[in-house]
Design brief:
- There is one protein chain.
- This protein is mainly alpha-helical.
- The chain has one domain.
- The chain has twelve helices and no strands.
- Helix 1 packs parallel to helix 12, helix 4 packs across helix 5 and helix 5 runs parallel beside helix 8.
- The termini are far apart.
- The relative contact order is 0.17.
């Protein structure tokens, strides 16, 4: 059953790495920093609203497709489970429970990018702790009271995603940067900044997705082996990522908005110098 949970969590986690904290953040934060440094609050707010609108409606569609197509997703990711009725059924159910997590955590990445650009690092840094606390609480206090204890972990992931998003709201309101969603997807799509972000995501998608696709292939192979193989692979991956999470992610979170702001300010300075005939 733990194998089933780890496989079910693999897809929303994969999409989170690609579209949330990975490629999206790498593209969004520099452009947001440029708008914040050079274009003023009004245009920056328009960009935030447009990006939030496009993300929200697109992610709702992806989540709906994921919930409906969970059996197909599970067949692709863990073909070895097809011959294990109980494990396969549990994995499909937990995939459906957790798939909306990708939408929640991608919006969390949007909120964290805004806060980091405004140099408010404490809240985005604390936010991931909520998922871990929800998983621990579910394992200790909810699972023992359920017919299938592992299902508590799946619900813990979903609740953790909701809490991670809600905790960002007060900080965004204090900054006056709370996104305002629109029903006009077409209007948001025509925003120049949104188009730039999507173009910038291309190279980042390639870089981020290689390791994640490799992990999916490994998971598929492990699903054909003895029970526990998928979980062992998951634990090994967590250990491998531990030093990266401690140092690399922390440094990247702080450096990316700082470097983006410095680059935008340098560009603005050069532009002013050229306008007075002082540029090289």
């Amino acid at each position: 059953m733990t194998d089933a949970f780890n496989v079910a969590f693999r897809i929303p986690n994969l999409l989170r790495r690609i579209f949330g904290e990975g490629a999206f953040s790498q593209a969004f934060v520099p452009i947001l920093g440029e708008y914040h440094a050079k274009r003023g609050d009004a245009e920056t707010k328009l960009l935030i609203d447009a990006v939030a609108t496009v993300m929200t409606w697109a992610l709702m569609g992806v989540s709906l497709l994921g919930v409906i197509g969970a059996p197909l997703v599970m067949t692709v990711v863990a073909t070895g489970f097809r011959g294990q009725g109980e494990t396969y059924t549990a994995a499909v159910f937990m995939t459906r429970v957790m798939f909306p997590y990708i939408g929640l955590i991608s919006l969390v990445a949007l909120a964290s990018g805004i806060l980091n650009t405004w140099r408010k690092f404490a809240m985005p840094a604390f936010t991931p702790v909520l998922l871990n606390l929800c998983l621990i609480f579910a394992a200790l206090f909810v699972g023992p009271h359920m017919a299938q204890p592992i299902y508590a972990q799946a619900w813990g992931v979903l609740v953790g995603g909701i809490l991670q998003l809600l905790i960002q709201v007060p900080a965004l309101r204090r900054l006056g940067a709370m996104p305002r969603l629109s029903f006009s997807m077409r209007e948001a799509w025509t925003n120049v900044g949104v188009r730039r972000i999507l173009r910038q995501m291309g190279p980042a998608l390639l870089a981020v997705s290689v390791a994640q696709i490799s992990l999916i292939i490994n998971t598929n192979i492990a699903s054909r082996l003895a029970a526990g193989s998928v979980s062992y692979l998951t634990y090994a991956d967590r250990l491998m990522e531990f030093p990266t999470a401690l140092l690399g992610v922390a440094l990247g979170t702080i450096l990316l908005p700082s470097l983006s702001k410095a680059s935008a300010q340098a560009t603005a300075t050069n532009t002013r110098a050229c306008s007075t005939g002082d540029c090289a």
